[in-house]
Amino acid sequence: MMEREATLKELFRPEDKPAALEGVKVLEICGVNFGCMIAGSLLQELGAEVYTLFDEEAAKITAEGVYIEGVGIPYFVEGRGKRRVTWGEVSSILPTVDILIDGLGPGKLAERGVGYPQLAEKYPALIYVAVSPFGHFPTQKSREYANMPDSDLTGQAYNGYMAMLGNPNLPEPYSYPLRAGIWLSWAFTGAAATLGALAAYWQRLKTGKGRFVDVATNDVLSVVHPYQVGAGFILGRGRRRSPTIDANLHVTYTTAKAKDRFVAIATVIWPEIEAFFEIIGRPDLAERWREAMAKVEERPEELHRLEKEVFNIVAQIPSDELIRRSREKGRPPIAVVKTLEEVAAQEHWHMRRAIMQVDCRGKRLLMPGTPYVLSETPGRANQPC
Amino acid sequence: MNWVHTLLAKFTRIIFKNHLFLYPMNYFDVIGTFFKNPVDSRPLEGVRVIEFAHYILGPNIPRLLAQLGAEVVKVEPPPRGDRWKYASMWGGRGFFKGMRIDYLYLNSNKYFLGLDFRSEKGRELMLELVKRADIFVENMEPGTLDRYGLGYLQLREVNPRLIYVSASGYGQFGPLHRLPSYDIIGQAESGIMDTTGWEEGEVNELYRLPDYPGDWLPSTMAVSAVIAALIHRVKSGRGQYIDLSQAASLQRFMYHFVYMSATGRRMGRSGFFDPFAVVSGVFKTADGKFVAVAAMTERQAKALAEVVPGLAEAVGDKWRSYKALAEWVAKKTLGDVLDVCKKLGVPAQPVMNDFDVVSDPWRWERGSVVKIVDRLYGEIVVPGPVVKMAGVDLGVKWVARPVGYHNKLVLKKWLGYGAEEVDELVKKGVLGYWDGQIGNTPPPGWRAEDDPVYLGERDEV
Question: Residue A305 is part of a domain; what is its CATH number?
Fold first, then answer.
C-alpha cells in the first residue's frame, strides 16, 4: 500500500503538465449569477481560457463588507484565472469563442443582438449555455420570471432542498427550513452547466456543430438528487424533516453529540447498524430499532424515543473513544465533525491542492483550490493575486 | 452603444430555418424551435463505460454519462452486487415493483452484468471488457481493486487509452486517504457541516446536509473531468487517472476559508440567511407557507425597502432587516409575496416539499419530471435530465435492472458471445443473476422466456 501511494503521488504531480481543455475559449456573461460564474471557473480549472464580462454588482457581493483586491469574496474566488472584458470587447472576442455562458436571463443577450438565435446563424459551431432560474426553454414560468434575477437561496428552496434541512422542534424562527451552508444550488447549477458544455463540445469535435444547452437553477438539484421526485411519486407527500436520523433510511446515519464534541456516524446497511449498537455497548437496541423503523410511517414517535435513548448513550462517550472502537471493529465509519479551523489546518487538503494558501500583497489568505486531480492534465489551482 | 443594440434588437428581424422572428417578443418561440424534433444523437454515443461501483458516489458518474449517451455496463458480483439496492427506505415503502425507487433512478440507462471478478475466468472476462472500454469508474476503498489486478496501474497496461476514475472520501493519496468514507464522513471532514445550522448564542446546532450531497455533487462535478479527459485523449492518444475526493469537491465551494483568513474570525453557521446577500431569509406568510427571499445586491435591497416598512433603516443588520421583512411577509399570502418580488426584481420563491416538486406544473412542462413507460417496470415517474440540450433527447430510456439482467446482451455486443456460452459461464459460476430479494428482482409476473432483452435478442431501445 505504501508503494502504491508513493507511485500515485508521483503520478499526480501537477508540475509541467498540460491542461485538458487547452485551446478551448470560453466567454461568460453572468451578471450576478454565480451558478454561471462557477461553470466558467470549473472550465477554467480544467484548462479553458475564460473571458468574463466584469459586473460591478457581482463584484460587490460579499459577507460583512469584506473585500479583497477590490472585490467581494465570491468574486475573488470565482473571478480568478479569468480575463476581464468589457461590452465593447465582446463582439471582437465572439468569433473565436467556443463556449458562451449566459447568466443574464432569457432574452437579455438577444436584446443586445448577441442571443443564441442571432449567434447560431453567424457562428454555427458555437456552444451556448444558458443559466437562469427557470430556463430559456419556453414554459409559462420561464416567460413569467424572465426578468427575475437568480439566487442560490431561492434555488435551494424551489428544489425542495431546504424543506428537509433544520430542526422543526426549535422555537420560531429557528425552526424554519434552513439553507445548506454553501451555495449548494449554484454549485449544482455550475457543475451541470459545465458538463453540458463539455458534452456539447465533445460532440462538436465529431460534427462541427454547436448547440444550445439550457440549465435551470430551480431544477438541477432535484433532478440530480432522486429523493424529491421519488418521495413525491411513491409516498404522495413530502417527507418529514429530521435534524438527526436520516429521513430516507431512518437509521443512525447522523450527527450526534459525543461527550466532548459532534461526531458523524455512517450507518447505512444493517451490519453497520448492528456494529454501531455494539460499539455503544447496547447490542439489544438493534432489534428494537428494526421494529421501530418498520413502523415509522404509522408511529414515528417510537423511533424518536429510541433515537433519544441512543443519543443519550452517545453523549456519555468521548469522540476519540467512539472512533477508536469503530476502527477496531472495522465499521461503521465514524468521524469527528471538523471545525473550519481544523479543516484549514490539515496537511492532507493542502497536499491535494483542495485548499491553498495564497499571498495577496503581503497578506496570507486561504482559499479553495481545485478538486480536479487528473494524472495527465491536472486541474489548475489559480493564484488570484 | 448599448442603447443602440437594445433599440435595434426591438426591430431586428431574424430568419432562422425559414421562419421569421421578431425580438424580444418572440424570444421564447425562437428558442422553442431549437428544441423541436430532438432527433440528433446524444453527445456521448459511442463512448463505452464500465462501472464497478456501489452506493451513490460512484454510480452517479456513469448515470450522468449514460444520460449523455454513453453505453454503461454496471458490473456486479452476483447475486447481490451493489448493496445500496437493499437498504430499507421510508420504512420499507420506498420500493416500486420490488426495486427501490432511488436505485431505479440512479442506475437508469445502464446495462447490468453479473460477473464474479474474483474467479480467474471472471477476471479474464473483465480484462477483455476493459480493452474495449473508454472509461472505468470505481468507488471501492482506495487500493481494493489493485488487489484483484483491476487498479489503474494495472489496467493502463491492458488499455493505455482508458480513463479511470476512482471516487472516495479523501482521494487516493495523502495522510488521510486510507480512511473509509460515506457522504456524511465527507461532509464532516470537509468542514461543510460546520457551516450549516445555527450559531446564535442560545441556538447552537449543526446539521448533516440531507439527501447525501457529499455523493451527488462531487460525482456530478466528476463528469466534466471525465469528458475533459476524453477531449484531451483526442490529442494525446492516452487515457489517464482521475482521483475524485468527496470532501475536496465540497471544499471547492467553501468561501469561508477566505473570510476566515482575511478577517481572523470564523464565519458563523448561516441558518436560513445567505451570508453574501444584502437581505435574506426564510419567512412565514399569512397563509402559513414558507418563502425564501434573497436580495443579493444593493439595488435589489433598495427596491425591497421601498415597499417594506423599516427595511431601509435596518439594512446592514441581518436580524433587524429579517424582522422588518418578516413582519411584512406575515401580512401577505405566498402568492402576494411572489407577485411583489417579481415586480421588484427581487429573488423570492416558495420553500417546496417533495410533493410540491413532483406536482409542479413548470417541471412537467419543462421535462424535469417525466412519466415514462419502462419496458420492464411499466409506468413510472422519473426525474428529467440534468440539462436540456436542444435537438437531443437526454431523458431516461429505462430504469435499473436486477443483477446480471443484461448478461447475454452485453457479452454479445461487447465480445460476440452466444447465449449458450453465457449459459455455460453461468453454470461455472463466472456469471450469475439476481437473488430475487426485494431490491433485486424483476417485477411480479416477469417471465424470462418472454423477455427478448434478457435473452440477448434485442436491445432495450
Answer: 3.30.1540
Nearest CA among B334, B325, B243 for reference residue A5: B243
Give the type of residue at B136. Answer: F
Q: Above 80 in pLDDT, residue B69?
A: yes
Distances (CA, A) of B99 to A202, A259, B89, B104, B397: 34, 40, 11, 7, 17
Euclidean distance between CA atoms B362 and B349, whole angstroms: 13
CB-nearest partner of A238 from B179, B259, B353: B353
pLDDT of B9 > 50? The answer is no
pLDDT confidence bin for B19, thresholds 50/70/90: low
Cβ-defined contact of A180 to B196 (cutoff 8 Å): yes
Convert the pLDDT of each residue in B352-371 to its tens digit. 999 999 999 999 999 999 99
Residue A246 lies in a domain: no
Q: What was the pLDDT predicted at A1?
A: 64
Kindly report the backbone phi and psi dihedral angles of residue A126, in degrees, each rounded to the nearest multiple of 5, phi listed first.
-70, 135
Give me the interface pTM, i.e. the ipTM. 0.97
Contact A183/B253, CB-based, under 8 Å?
A: yes
Mutation target among B150, B253, B279, B340 for the A interface, most CBs of A within 10 A: B253
Ranges under pLDDT 50 in chain A: none
Phi, psi of A122 (to 5 degrees): -80, -40
Classify residue A150 by its DSSP letter.
P
CA proximity to A233, closest of B96, B63, B342, B30: B96
| Nearest-angstrom CA–CA distance, A286 and A300 | 17
Q: Out of B68, B83, B362, whose CB is closest to A141?
A: B362
Per DSSP, B410 falls in state H
The C-alpha of A268 sits at a distance from chain B's nearest C-alpha, in angstroms, of: 7
Instruction: Tell me the pTM.
Output: 0.96
Query: Is residue B304 a contact partner of residue B295, using CB atoms and an 8 Å limit?
Result: yes
CB of A242 within 8 A of CB of A166? no
Q: Does residue A344 lie within any of the structural domains?
A: no
User: Which overall architecture, per CATH, does domain B48-251+400-450 show?
Assistant: 3-Layer(aba) Sandwich (3.40)
Angle among Cα B212, B213, B214 to the nearest 5 degrees reads 85
H helical segments located in chain A: 2-11, 34-45, 56-60, 73-78, 87-93, 108-111, 116-122, 140-144, 152-158, 184-207, 217-224, 227-235, 270-279, 285-294, 300-314, 319-329, 340-345, 347-351
Cβ-Cβ contacts under 8 Å, A118 against chain B: 12, 14
SS3 B431: strand
Q: What is the DSSP letter of A238?
A: P
Phi and psi at A87, nearest 5°, equal -55, -35
Would you list the domain boundaries of chain B? 2-35, 48-251+400-450, 279-355
Residue pairs between chains A and B whose CB atoms are closer than 8 Å:
644
Summarised one tens digit per residue, pLDDT across range A227-237 is: 999 999 999 99
Note whether B351 contacts A177, CB cutoff 8 Å.
yes
CATH class for the domain made up of B279-355 = alpha beta
